[in-house]
Amino acid sequence: MKSAILFSGGKDSTYSAYLAKKAGYEISCLITILSENKESYMFHTPSIEQTKSQSKAMQIPLVITKTAGIKEQELDDLTEAIKQVKEKYKIDTVITGALYSDYQASRIQKICDNLNLKCFNPLWHKDEIEYLNELVKNKFDITITGVFAYPLNQSWLGRTINKEFIDEVTQLKNKYKIHPAGEGGEFETFVLNCPLFKFKLKVMNYEDIKEGENAWRREIKVI
């Protein structure tokens, strides 16, 4: 089972790669889409170019494709990227970090069907609190790189997903109905270390950018 990971550098795609490898999939490459649209419906954007460093840490080839990020049209760029990977790496499966997004999952499934590829979503409908605890248990070092929902604010940027974090987002789920794993776009993440990495990444510098009320992103530089 030769696979490609749709890879953003965040917790969902990285943990899906981890679960896929445990399930016996061979990870042939990572696919990262660089979107010019920061509000893309499909693709994660904070610190996205740092996936190059994660690729080196995992010692897995990275294929990068750019897109203007226009809704629905960006799927053509994703299709072309997957098509090229299929030809180059002879993959039979595409693995995603989709958790609850029918929008993302259905469109990726359609692309895979058209290219005669299997689609595997290891996290699909996984309990969000259980999922966060698994990340901690399996020693995933994850930093917050974006917040986009009340009552999250700049102070959350750079936080690590740990027991304290899980306790707080559980309370926010109960009070404000936000998705504790950020599936509704409430926050974005970047993985600095996990069992797939040969070495840990370090944040050398960063820039916090305010994008609106209750909307901040942190662009990081890692080595």
Task: Give your account of this protein's structure.
- The chain has 223 residues and is α/β, with parallel strands linked by helices.
- It has two domains: 2-120, HUPs (Rossmann fold), CATH 3.40.50.620; 142-222, Alpha-Beta Complex (putative n-type atp pyrophosphatase, domain 2), CATH 3.90.1490.
- 33% of the residues lie in helices and 26% in strands.
- The strands form two sheets. It has a five-stranded parallel beta sheet, with helices on both faces. A four-stranded antiparallel beta sheet has the order 7-6-9-8, with no helix packed on it.
- Helix 3 packs across helix 4.
- The chain is globular and about 45 Å long.
- The two termini are 31 Å apart.
Question: Which helices and strands appear, and what pairs or packs with what?
Answer:
Elements: E1 2-6, H1 11-22, E2 26-35, H2 51-58, E3 62-67, H3 74-89, E4 93-95, H4 102-114, E5 118-120, H5 128-137, E6 141-147, H6 163-176, E7 187-193, E8 203-212, E9 215-222
Parallel strand pairs: 1-2, 1-4, 2-3, 4-5
Antiparallel strand pairs: 6-7, 6-9, 8-9
Helix pairs in contact: 3-4
